[in-house]
Amino acid sequence: HRCFGDEASAEVCSNPGSCGPGRELPAMEPAQGDGFPRYAKVPRGPGARVWTQDEVRLHDGTSKERPLLLAIVGEVYDVGTGAEFYSQGKGYSALAAGDNSRRFADLGEEGEDDQALAKVEDMSNDDFKAVLGWRGFYRTHETYRFVGVVQGRYYDAEGRPTPELGRVEERHKAQSVAAQSKKELQQRFKACNSRHKAGEPTFEIWCDDGYHGKGKAPVHIYLKAKDGSDTDGWCACVAPKLRPRFEEEAAAGGHQFRFVEYPECEKGKQRCSRP
Question: pLDDT tens for residues 32-54?
């Protein structure tokens, strides 16, 4: 075991009180070749090691005496097999040695401190989705290893999830449900064909009897959020006379969406041009 109070650690530890003098780091597996030593993978859940911010910061790839770590939404991963991406001087080194969750959506993101860079609940839907998508990537990666959680926004000193993590997970679940709903609707209401020629101010959209079915015409489908606002959408081919019934069935079945006519398209026509 390496003691967290050793000389090398003391040079990097910005807050010795939080580092815990004499606190042992986990046992390390020897490095393979010119790589980094590794920490063993541990199960996610109660009992996983709780890292301090300063402990994680020590593992930034500047020394091959220690493994290479990163954290995302409070979860800590040994990414030693990805040294070509995360070690010092490499393209994604800004993601290592701390919970830099916001940088998984924008690598150039700046924050006042670790806590600021870890915050994701105020991000846009697309950026939030990107960050949680990356968390899923690390959770299922073949060679990156979950080694614990970092104390801060998402886990307390005992490794218990914080209310903020609860809100993040709730939003992530809602996004996942919406994505599944969209997938089901896209299978039911097939997307319009479209074509654009370079230099022209408009593009053409149309529905094909052979692919979409007879009597279908272009219409925009908007998915609706819990608050009733429009979120995502696409051009789909739907029979005009069936649209009111589909909306009623959707509301009864928990699928929230609405159809909106394109003002450039004559109602019922299968083909039109729009800007």
Answer: 999 999 999 999 999 999 999 99
Contacts of residue 126, Cβ cutoff 8 Å, sequence gap at least 6: 105
| 258 or 74, greater pLDDT | 74
| Contact predicate 211/190, CB 8 Å | yes
Tell me, yes or no, if the pTM score tops 0.85.
no
Query: In degrees, to the nearest 5, what angle opens at C-alpha 220 toward C-alphas 219 and 223?
Result: 140
Query: What is the rounded average pLDDT for all residues in the chain?
Result: 88
CB atoms closer than 10 angstroms to residue 157: 9
DSSP annotation of 181: H
So what's the pLDDT on residue 267?
A: 85
Using a 10 angstrom Cβ sphere, with 0-12 exposed, 13-18 middle and 19 or more buried, the burial of residue 17 is exposed
The number of CA neighbours under 13 Å toward the Cβ of 25 is 25
CA atoms of 196 and 275, how far apart (whole Å): 10
Predicted pLDDT at 256: 77
CA distance 68 to 89: 13
The answer on pLDDT for 184 being more than 60 is yes
- Half-sphere exposure (Cβ direction) of 109: Cα atoms closer than 13 Å: 23
Pairing relationship of beta strands 69-72 and 75-78 according to DSSP bridges: antiparallel
Written as six digits, the tokens of 168 are 């993040």
CA distance 33 to 37: 10
Beta carbons within 8 Å of 99's beta carbon, 6+ residues apart: 53, 56, 71, 72, 73, 74, 114, 117, 118, 150, 152, 153, 154
Question: Which residue's entry shows tokens 């370079």?
Answer: 198
Q: Tokens representing 179?
A: 């994505």
Average pLDDT over residues 119-147: 97
Contact call for residues 119 and 153 (beta carbons, < 8 A):
yes
